[in-house]
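dude i think i finally got it to work??
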Amino acid sequence: ENILLIEDDAYRFLCTEPPSSFLELIPNHTVHISSLSKPINSFIKTAFLFAPSSITGSLADWIRFTSSGTSTFNSRLAKYVLEQGWLTKISIEKQQLAKFSQEILKDKFSGIEYDIYPTAFHVWVKLSANKSATQLVADLANEHIFVSLGTEFAIQPEMGEHCFRIALAGEPDKEKLSSALTIIASKIS
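look at this
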């Protein structure tokens, strides 16, 4: 009864059939955070927070004291986007883009082990124990290919020592993405 969950729902839009959220399952124990920056555009810095009524006042005070407020432009733009039904349309387009990017990945990473959700843009690659993720990330950066160290995302840093993450949406040009994935694959093998 005294549990409060904080649910970050940034990537739900990529799920074609998302599971029930904690907000749906246990609304009186869930603070649910969603935004338009991932599904629409990173420049729309508008978030939505749903919380149990018992803590709404405290949360509102905390947000007011720790932030500089909201942008009227962003709030109006968010309202317009939602009223026009663009969120659903853009979400479907992004799901399709993720699937297309993954087809390129699948072609270039044949024989390489990686983890990715079917409609996601982020790829988790685990290297063999004799390969250094730190060195690989540095080598790729020298070729202007930027990936992230696994230690930046692992719950325990040692879990990410031989891992790195690729953001497929980081390169909108599909030919450049294909070329970068070819180079990454060659450095892994």
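Strands lie at 5-8, 30-35, 47-50, 114-115, 122-126, 148-149, 163-167.
im so relieved honestly
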